[in-house]
Amino acid sequence: MKVAILGIGTVGSGAYDIIRESDCGLTVARVLDRYVPEGLEGLVTTNYDEILGDPEIKIVAEAIGGLHPAYEFVTAALRAGKHVVSANKHLICHYYRELHELARENGVKLRFTPSAGGGIPWLFNLRRARRCDEIESLRGIMNGTTNYILDSMQNLGSDFAEVLAVAQSLGYAEADPSADIDGWDVRRKCAISASIAYDTVLGEDDVPTFGIRTVTAADIAYFKSMGLCCKLLAFAKKNGNEVTAYVEPTLLPADATEASVGSNFNCISLWGKYVGRLSFIGQGAGKYPTGHALVEDMLDIRDDVAMKKQTAGGDITVNADRFPHRYYIRTTAKIADGLVERRDGDVVITRPLSPAAMHKAAAAAADIDPLLFIAGLEDSVE
Known about the structure:
Layout: E1 2-6, H1 10-21, E2 27-32, E3 44-45, H2 49-52, E4 57-62, H3 70-79, E5 83-86, H4 89-94, H5 96-105, E6 110-111, H6 122-129, E7 135-141, H7 144-156, H8 160-169, H9 178-181, H10 184-197, H11 217-225, E8 228-239, E9 242-253, E10 265-272, E11 276-283, H12 287-302, E12 317-318, E13 326-330, E14 340-344, E15 347-350, H13 355-366, E16 373-377
Parallel strand pairs: 1-2, 1-4, 2-3, 4-5, 5-6, 9-12, 9-16
Antiparallel strand pairs: 7-8, 7-10, 8-9, 10-11, 13-15, 13-16, 14-15
Helix pairs in contact: 1-12, 7-8
């Protein structure tokens, strides 16, 4: 089967190498890019119409990233009757409903396994599990950059800025790391995962999020003194017809599964009514892990691997006022006594609060103290 790859950067080139070097039965017929890497002369084009107008190209693999022009390219491919696979979490999260409806209207398939979990077959197995099971909850480490930072701070006692600089030098963090350290990357992956798990559509604004930008070595030392480890986790849970999803630093006991996941690895779990817990650990990003997942999606389409179709989930509502738990807050801002279980200098342990209530209170306190840091104390984390 002939395919086209949009973007020959990190992920696109990874997918191209895997197709070229493996005996998987796919052929890259065209590559869309502004630049022509050495050895790809004659394969690369800047004219997208050459891809849309080629009836032999059945699948378009989008590896450009961002919203535009990725959105225009993907929708044009779907309208042209071509299947689409994508690694673009921003695009999939932002246009989730529209892209699914457009694929359905044109009788083609849309797959985006690498958009959450990179090389981990997380979304594939999440879809597979929900065919005959009810997903009660999911949670996990969904960003390798932040896991590398927190793991290094935990094990080396290093300061945040120092570890971030090392992560950037290793290529784990971008020059502008905001999407990672502020939790936006995880928020998108959480929204996509919850949308699949609960057959609904969650947007980014439905997922209260707090990142790790303000965590300090002193915070980490405090957690260690309590026998706890800090990880940035995404959560999604269902209660009746309501779904709660949120992203926040979370304090885990040393024997928690995620506590042992180091470096830039991811660990994502689901809990099914019948199957119980299933956990997936591996590289959540990178040229070949993510490129591999992109190729796997192409092969699933070629081999007609069926998945339960997504619907609009009209009877599901999103409510972040569910599932209260205690929080650690380190701040110089005044925290209302009614929220406090105990104080220890600038550290407050709150009474159980919902994610919506805590994130709202944190946003208000951060106006006074921009260096504020919070972390959830998940009393039922295991």
